[in-house]
Design a protein that fits this description.
By secondary structure, the chain is an alpha+beta fold. It folds into 4 domains: 5-170, Rossmann fold, CATH 3.40.50.300; 181-261, Beta Barrel (Elongation Factor Tu (Ef-tu), domain 3); 267-369, Elongation Factor Tu (Ef-tu), domain 3 (Beta Barrel); 512-631, Winged helix-like DNA-binding domain superfamily/Winged helix DNA-binding domain (Arc Repressor Mutant, subunit A). It is built from 19 helices and 34 strands. The strands form 9 sheets. Strands 7, 8, 9, 11, 12, 13, 15 and 16 form an 8-stranded antiparallel beta sheet that branches. A 6-stranded mixed beta sheet has the order 2-3-1-4-5-6, sandwiched between helices.
Length: 635
């Protein structure tokens, strides 16, 4: 049996609370003001025992127009709705508004319950049934069962209970495998336990000891205790009314409207891309730029409506829009919401979230509209591709992409595999994947960077990777730049030589004068052995060619013809390798080598012996132990 939340809806004083009491024996009005005035003001909760011994949660909502805000806080988690219509009054304004809200929230299953059947004649009751049929036409309740009951006499209550059981079997239920999420509808303190929140667990499961996050604040909390229908349980599952005792947080740090969820599983943003629909009986024209009340989960806040493809919406119309907020909201793609007019406050429409963390859009942009169409009705693969097309410049990780699209990592990988095979996207290492169009833009940028570098540094084999990272990305992830370079190397667009990156067809070329000077420098170091001149001495010998000499030194190091072991001290590669071979050969026969022994081994001075040994220390080849050197395990 699915875990199902049953909800009530309907006009004030039509008997919703009395009906719940007749079905369950539980009084849902808990506030003194409710008992005094005889109307429901805030959400009430009960549970119904099912034939298999399980229990279904029930949310009783207020029917008065002043408390629609509270009704909306409870409507978001409903799976099966009892739309209550009093036989003596029939359909009323709040009945219509509640039905519109439930339709906007995409509730699928419901039962129409005509209450107070004992107060009217049979012919009047038939007229009410006809009115109900007309009012629910075109909604999810068009073909729903219609039952007449009296909570006072008990007429029809057993039949209603059986119809509810059948409705529960048909209801889809909630996703227990998704990351946990519970919009908070109550917060209170219990002596000896601390802060407790209640709500409908919309997705996933929550167990004692779990770490959760409060959205949108981002504060982390730990679950101390879990209850379902006042009974302590090890785990609560999606579709259950749940009370959670939280450790390490004050009552004042969490409020109705917050969401408790798995860490890093929701997007927090000041904007949402949506498909908004205006109710068919709405009497207002919704203009671009309108201020609206936004209701999502148990949260209500103000937003500005930016219509992206028209200037206004009237009754029954729909369109793509961007909602912009002054305070952050936490949502997931595919969530439904309701909007109400700013003043006077009345429900005008609602819709579905297409992107929970979008960029700011321009109005009347065909490319934006095309992207939103894909997000609304495209295949899952199309939606993944569209997200990558828009977001690749931010270099989202797989975890970020999965969160934005409300997918698990496994589901995302399944969708990415054919997209990569088709050349639509490209994986960069284990963490990143980007759209091929972004990769092409990246190549254009890289090509420009390297072309400019080659033009101004013609004697260098390429740009150092470390410098390239900063020019190409704001990201400091070295693995990312390496993955990008490997991708372009595989396409034979670039080459990497000794840690320097160049265009694939670039070759260092020297003029005859440059080649003459280069050969002179190389021969100087080849014949110098282990007693080499400083680079300043070389520069001093060529006062008119100092800048060219500096470039030649850099080029010879980049090409590994010279090895720079210390400032001003270079060795020819042949002598450098010979020195290293002598060192390792000596240390294969001796446990360590002293500085003097190494100096004598090379037949050089202490200055050059120290420079080489300290260079190898930095490279992790040797390690200084006392006054001697030993080979490292790495070496």
């Amino acid at each position: 049996m699915n875990n199902i939340i049953i909800g009530t809806a309907g006009h004030v004083d039509h008997g919703k609370t009395t009906l719940i009491r007749a079905l369950t024996g539980i009084e849902t009005d808990r506030l003194k003001e409710e008992k005094k005035r005889g109307i429901t003001i805030d959400l009430g909760f009960a549970h119904l025992k099912l034939p298999d011994g399980q229990q279904a949660g029930i949310v009783d909502v207020p029917g008065h127009e002043k408390f629609v805000k509270n009704m909306l806080a409870g409507a978001g988690g409903m799976d099966l709705v009892l739309l209550v219509v009093a036989a003596d009054e029939g359909f009323m304004p709040q009945t219509r508004e509640h039905l519109g809200i439930l339709t906007l929230l995409d509730v699928k299953e419901g039962i129409v319950v005509i209450t107070k059947a004992d107060m009217v004649e049979e012919d009047w009751l038939e007229a009410v049934k006809e009115e109900v049929a007309q009012e629910v036409k075109g909604t999810f309740l068009e073909n729903a069962p219609v039952l007449t009951v009296s909570a006072v006499t008990g007429q029809g209550i057993p039949e209603l209970r059986e119809e509810i059981f059948r409705g529960i079997q048909k209801a889809q239920g909630k996703n227990t495998r998704a990351p946990a999420r519970i919009p908070v509808d109550r917060v209170f303190s219990v002596d000896g336990f601390g802060t407790v929140i209640t709500g409908t667990l919309l997705e996933g499961s929550i167990s004692e000891g779990d770490e959760l996050m409060i959205y949108p604040s981002g504060e982390r909390v730990k679950v101390r205790n879990v209850q379902v229908h006042s009974q302590t349980v090890p785990t609560a599952y999606a579709g259950q009314r749940t009370a959670i005792n939280l450790a390490g947080i004050k009552k004042t740090d969490i409020n109705r409207g917050d969401t408790l969820a798995k860490p890093d599983s929701m997007e927090v943003s000041l904007m949402l891309d949506v498909k908004v629909r205006i109710l068919k009986d709405c009497q207002r024209v919704i203009e671009n730029g309108s201020r609206l009340h936004f209701y999502h989960g148990t949260r209500d806040t103000l937003c500005k409506l930016i219509l992206l493809e028209q200037d206004q919406l009237i009754q029954g119309e729909s369109g793509y829009a961007q909602l912009r907020f002054q305070e952050p909201v936490a949502t997931r793609k595919g969530d439904h919401f309701v909007v109400r007019f700013y003043s006077p406050v009345e429900t005008v429409g609602g819709g579905v979230i297409l992107d929970s963390a979008p960029q700011r859009h321009k109005r009347m942009d065909a490319q934006v509209i095309e992207g939103l169409q894909v997000k609304e009705s495209g295949s899952l693969g199309d939606r993944v591709s569209q997200y990558l097309l828009e977001a690749s410049a931010q270099l989202p990780t797989l975890e970020t992409i999965a969160k934005q699209l409300s997918l698990s990592i496994e589901e995302l990988r399944e969708e990415l595999e054919p997209l990569c095979q088709q050349g639509i996207c490209v994986a960069l290492g284990e963490k990143y994947v980007v759209h091929v169009q972004y990769l092409q833009k990246l190549w254009q940028k890289l090509e420009e960077i390297l072309s400019n570098y080659h033009r101004t540094n013609p004697l260098q084999v390429g740009l150092k990777k470390e410098e390239l990272r900063g020019k190409l990305f704001s990201s400091k992830d070295t693995a990312l730049i390496d993955s990008v370079l490997e991708q372009f190397m595989g396409e034979h667009r670039i080459k990497v030589t000794n840690g320097r990156v160049s265009l694939a067809d670039f070759q260092v070329t020297y003029t005859p004068a440059q080649k003459k000077l280069l050969d002179e420098v190389v021969n100087t170091y080849r014949t110098a052995g282990y007693t080499v001149p400083s680079s300043d001495e070389i520069l001093a010998a060529h006062p008119k060619e100092k800048e060219l000499c500096k470039q030649i030194f850099e080029a010879l190091v980049a090409e590994e013809i010279l090895v720079a072991v210390a400032p001003q001290i270079y060795f020819h590669k042949e002598h450098y390798q010979s020195a290293l071979d002598r060192l390792t050969g000596y240390l294969k026969e001796h446990p360590s080598i002293a500085l003097g022994d190494f100096r004598d081994l090379l037949g050089t001075s202490r200055k050059y012996a120290v420079a080489l040994l300290e260079f190898w220390d930095r490279r992790g080849i040797t390690q200084k132990v006392g006054d001697a050197r030993v080979l490292t395990k790495q070496a």
